[in-house]
Design a protein that fits this description.
2 copies of one chain form a homodimer. Chain A is α+β, with helices and mostly antiparallel strands. In chain A, about 30% of the residues lie in helices and about 25% in strands. The radius of gyration of chain A is 22 Å and the shape is globular. Chain A starts with about 25 loop residues before the first strand and ends with a helix. Chains A, B: Keywords: Acyltransferase, Amino-acid biosynthesis, Arginine biosynthesis, Autocatalytic cleavage, Cytoplasm, Multifunctional enzyme, Transferase.
Chain lengths: ~425, ~425
């Protein structure tokens, strides 16, 4: 998590990075505050137009970072005017000093933005346990506030500034209608290790010019998170800092939508879900040391929640992940991971596929299984593992990556 | 799991392997049945004297192997005359053919032992999903039965024959009194990967000449398992084959002990617990790729069960395990693992030690913490991580190993 040494870009990085259009009411600036890294940007400042509403979901860790506590409180107000993100230091497990540091950062940002401290949202990512010197933001945030920019380059710089062990920036955009009004949704994310199902990537920020009340915004965000960030895992380790914030500036001027069940929201929900899935998948594609992007599909479970737990048991199994790294269609390890999930399963009804190749059925190896065909599937950079439990109609889909010696090298190489 | 290539002996292997004394009523023989390996023994046959009583605990996997199902049934009878163990093939997820294979193995063994098939216990370890040809036992088991031996060399050969990816054989012995009578307890185990808290190592077999009724034997075994094999994890992956069997031949001729609470059992329980802990620790010491033996101690939790779950969350965290591999006193990752366990914890009361070095207290870095002292602790082959939650008096202790590129190499190297 703390390394700043150059790591090659993940082989699973997207071929094309989208240019993000402007979102009315959002301006961005980045800066070098030398919080931990030198020679690169490590601060993102986002100015949000008056009237911006915020929604958020956070880590379920019992030991959350000081910024997570701050954002949870700030959400009670519901109004947002500025977002400050730093990379290099997570300000997590820093005790009273951590809380003071967040409060001071908010004050500095509030002065720069001309707003209340409670309208400032803060996220930090990087090393845990090191005090974060908020004094480093003094001057920097005011400077940022003076040069915020709504353009594509500013969005690209924003995605870059929040990276830690990420090997590529993560950004996505959607355009959709609410009623007759066109609205934009932009998102950026960061995260590569310490990614687990209990919530988002470490950090993701989504901005829209839609006009939506906070209760509605929170509803669509929670629903979208369940289908996206809560379905991605790299190593099963849940961060103390996981933060997903959604800001709506209202500047698109769409007709008021006051109920979460309003049918005019259907397209917006779909576009948001889609964008969140894209960002979540980008996180799995940048999993530390990843060489394979893995989709795990479980069907025929007792229920959807049961299917999800089984899918996560498969996606988090070191033996399954190392087998995929080794391009080994080792379905025995998939059986093991199904068995250990503790969910209803009947060994003698299980069927397992790698890609389109059914390797097992009715509790034994598929007699028609071709090792050559399975090997061809395993050599691809994208691998799908599918399990049919044959019990009922519960289903789930999660995304992960393989476990390679690259993960060990990034997280645990012997210090020289 | 399937490799038979030579792996160097774990640096954590014991310096001395004990010679196991005879256990009255137990004779052992090994053989080469070429089930998967060639040039090594892969079958263990144990003859048990008439009147031998069996107890057992098994994997909690919902997809257990065919031999596990067989042993669970055989325990209902409670009488044991023979144990057959093979390495190389786990006979797991082999459907109807797997069940037939176990039944035929039991018949062959019963003929060799001159007993009922229901008095034969069977365990298999190795690759999952491959049909096991029980015909390979034909002739082999009868030959074994004709040359069983009670001596130390036979015990050493037994521990060797059941190995798969193990880099060293695992055996232990204790001598203890029940009343005025001296009884012996011998144990052998195997396991290196796919080791997780839901039960034992993959396979462990314990033999005693004590005379104990089955209910008492089962009681002492279950109690001992909770303190030993259920406190060890290598990779959090629970095997489909985990089996721990305890056989009591009764040939020591101790006074009858009919109640599990009989105080004359105290020394026996203590010796058995101690032997089971020794075997469980040997498994962690032979964790695939392990270079550090890690003890995780949690205290101050809401209760013992809560402490156990937190300890397991730490012991199974890839980020904690890679940090230990890297000799990095990264207590931030310990905080993360405490937080993700989902158990009651208060960030601001946490204290963390590596060895005797307190690195964090009251939710922040210990101001007296010496990086040099912590680094010295981390360079040792044995590392203890201690966490005090500061809430109540719940405590737990578990054992694991670090996560190195050796684990990846054993389980996932790209197939060439």
């Amino acid at each position: 998590m703390s390394s700043s040494k150059a790591t090659p870009v993940s082989p699973l990085a997207p071929a094309i990075y989208p240019d993000l259009p402007a979102v009315r009411g959002v301006g961005l600036a980045t800066a070098q505050a030398c919080i931990r890294y030198s020679g690169r940007t490590d601060v993102l400042y986002v100015a949000l137009a008056e009237g911006t509403v915020a929604a958020g979901v956070f880590t379920r860790s019992k030991c959350p970072s000081a910024p997570v506590d701050w954002c949870r409180d700030a959400l009670h107000g519901g109004s947002a005017r500025a977002l400050v993100v730093n990379s290099g230091n997570a300000n997590a497990f820093t005790g009273l000093r951590g809380r003071e540091s967040v409060a001071r950062t908010a004050e500095i940002a509030a002065r720069a933005a001309g707003c209340e401290a409670g309208q400032v949202f803060i996220a930090s990512t990087g090393v845990i346990g090191e005090p974060l010197d908020a004094g480093k933001f003094e001057g920097v945030l005011a400077d940022c506030a003076g040069r915020v920019d709504p353009g594509a380059d500013a969005w690209a710089a924003a995605a870059q500034a929040i990276m830690t062990t990420d090997t590529f920036p993560k950004r996505a955009t959607r355009n959709v209608r609410i009623g007759d009004t066109s609205v934009t949704i932009n998102g950026i994310a960061k995260g590569a290790g310490m990614i687990a199902p209990d919530m988002a990537t470490m950090l993701a920020f989504v901005f829209t010019d839609a006009a939506l009340p906070q209760a509605v915004l929170q509803d669509v965000l929670v629903a979208g998170t369940a289908k996206s960030f809560n379905c991605v895992t790299v190593d099963g380790d849940t961060s103390t800092s996981d933060t997903l914030l959604l800001f709506a500036t209202g500047r698109a001027g769409n007709d008021p939508v006051n109920e979460a069940v309003d049918p005019r929201l259907a397209a917006f929900r779909e576009a948001l879900d889609d964008l969140l899935i894209e960002l979540a998948q980008l996180v799995a594609r940048d999993g530390e040391g990843a060489r394979k992007f893995v989709t795990v599909e479980v069907e025929g479970a007792e229920g959807d929640a049961s299917a999800h737990r089984i899918a996560m048991s498969i996606a988090n199994s070191p033996l399954v992940k190392t087998a995929i790294a080794g391009e080994d269609a080792n379905w025995g390890r998939v059986v093991m991971a199904v068995g250990k999930a503790g969910e209803p399963a009947d060994r003698d009804r299980l069927a397992i596929w790698f890609g389109d190749v059914r390797v097992a059925r009715e509790g034994a190896r598929d007699p028609d299984y071709s090792e050559a065909a399975a090997s061809a599937v395993m050599r691809e950079p994208k691998v799908t593992v599918r399990v049919d439990l044959g019990l009922s109609s519960g289903r789930a889909r999660v995304w992960t990556c393989d476990l390679t010696s690259g993960y060990i090298a990034i997280n645990g190489d012997y210090r020289s």
